[in-house]
Specification:
Elements: H1 21-30, E1 35-39, H2 50-59, E2 64-74, E3 78-89, E4 92-95, E5 105-114, H3 120-129, E6 136-140, H4 145-163, H5 169-213
Parallel strand pairs: 1-4
Antiparallel strand pairs: 1-5, 2-3, 2-5, 3-4, 3-6
Length: about 210
């Protein structure tokens, strides 16, 4: 799958348009303060290889890699945090890694780790020691059983995807189809009361018109 296809997923995640109290609380749980990084993918950067991309940029003298968390929101249903790396430059933070859901900027929560010549080996050991379960976190914004199940499905899919080095697209698409069905069912349940009210209004209007004719 081309990474650009992910941007057109039915329930694609997006960069939050503003930093809400829920995001501030989530960021605090992650151990940092959220700030926006400009999205400027560089020609040599490859999808999913954010640390490699930023370290190569460091070697080219373009800035200092900063580790932390990228924050995305899905339809105001939940927040997703993914362990990420961006580049600190004189003009601010830059996200140089291609991603389908940046909206021109990325919300980033630094975790205090910056990469230099003297600590590159230590940082690499830290990254490679992290289990897949530590590379993502989620915060529900809507407490509904179907949304809870969708987030659990996403979390399991993300862990499996990480363990296959981001290569098992067939398994990923299958899980995304499951999430689509769960969220379709959630929105259908939300629409039913409104449809009932609308039908009642239409029925009342027909009765009013019928009485007016007599």
């Amino acid at each position: 799958m081309d990474i650009s296809q992910l941007a057109h997923a039915k329930y694609a995640a997006n960069t939050p348009t503003q930093i809400t109290p829920a995001i501030l609380e989530f960021a605090k749980e992650l151990g940092g303060t959220p700030e926006y990084a400009r999205y400027r993918p560089l020609p040599f950067a490859k999808p999913y290889l954010c640390f490699h991309n930023c370290d190569l940029a460091r070697q080219l003298g373009l800035g200092t890699p900063v580790l932390g968390w990228g924050i995305w929101v899905t339809r105001n249903l939940w927040l997703t945090a993914e362990y990420h790396a961006v580049l600190k430059t004189e003009s601010g933070l830059l996200d140089i890694t291609p991603t389908p859901d940046s909206d021109g900027r990325v919300l980033f929560v630094p975790d205090g780790i910056e990469v230099f010549d003297h600590n590159i080996d230590e940082v690499e050991r830290h990254l490679f020691s992290l289990p897949a379960e530590r590379l993502g976190a989620y915060k529900l914004l809507v407490d509904h059983p179907l949304v809870v199940e969708a987030v659990a499905t996403l979390e399991n899919a993300a862990i499996t995807f990480q363990r296959t080095s981001n290569s098992d697209w067939d398994a990923w698409e299958k899980e995304m189809d499951t999430i689509d069905r769960l969220l379709d069912a959630y929105y259908e349940k939300k629409r039913k009361p409104f449809r009932k009210v609308l039908r009642a209004k239409k029925k009342a209007e027909r009765q009013r018109r019928k009485k007016a004719r007599h």
